[in-house]
Design a protein that fits this description.
By secondary structure, the chain is mainly α. Helices cover 50% and strands 4% of the residues. It is built from 11 helices and 3 strands, in the order ααααβββααααααα. The protein has a 3-stranded antiparallel beta sheet, with no helix packed on it.
Length: 227
């Protein structure tokens, strides 16, 4: 905060002997309460979101494939938008992320349901969205261009409203993937690889322990409960 910076500067001036006393020495900054993490959609709510697009249309097929891929492989917005046609291996059920955060590359699993919808989109959706030239990206806009960051955010919000959910973003679906897998006893180290984090501490901040899961663990493990 600004006040913390001022106090640090005063302390520096005192230690450098530009000041006789540290005027901020006795000032105690109030502790601000931790911000509550947003409530994540449950598995059932995410399923409603995935089923929201009208898959009888090319655009609906694209949106279904995007939502499935975001939730299945925990991709970042930028990572999904930059996927090329050859980056998704439907036979090996793998996604090659060539443009990860910090320029890092990784290979992540692709779930079978997500793979099925990507294949459906490639067969019956993508060709209708392309115009004169093929840009080589997996997902295309209505104008035939690579899908933009704004379009990706907008489609998540649109289908979240249709599913009766609150605000949903690509980033939130990434959180959902990690948290739902953690609730099903996924290893934190494996989640770190999936998310592309260089530090396990980042992964821990990224996952939420749901109160229902915490309550079940408490009842199973607490000495006053487990009898």
């Amino acid at each position: 905060s600004k006040m913390s910076a001022v106090l640090a500067f005063l302390r520096f001036l005192y230690q450098a002997r530009f000041l006789v006393v540290d005027p901020g020495r006795d000032i105690q900054l109030p502790r601000l309460p931790n911000k509550l993490l947003p409530r994540l959609p449950s598995e059932e709510e995410v399923l409603r979101l995935l089923e929201a697009p009208d898959t009888t249309t090319p655009l609906g097929l694209r949106d279904r494939a995007i939502l499935e891929l975001l939730y299945s492989s925990a991709l970042r917005n930028s990572e999904l938008r930059q996927l090329g046609l050859t980056d998704v291996d439907l036979d090996r059920l793998e996604v090659r992320v060539l443009y990860g955060k910090g320029g890092k590359q990784r290979v992540v699993p692709l779930g079978e349901p997500a793979a099925a919808w990507v294949e459906e989109y490639l067969r019956h959706g993508r060709g209708f969205l392309l115009k004169d030239t093929d840009h080589g990206r997996l997902f295309s806009s209505l104008r035939g261009d690579p899908i933009s960051v704004e379009s990706l955010v907008d489609l998540c919000r649109k289908h979240a409203r249709a599913a009766g959910l609150g605000r949903v973003t690509p980033h939130l679906l990434r959180h959902c993937c990690a948290t739902h897998m953690l609730a099903r006893e996924a290893n934190l180290r494996h989640l770190q690889e999936l998310l592309g984090h260089s530090s396990a501490a980042t992964t821990q901040r990224y996952t939420q322990v749901q109160l229902s899961d915490l309550r079940a663990v408490h009842q199973r493990c607490h000495p006053r409960e487990a009898f």
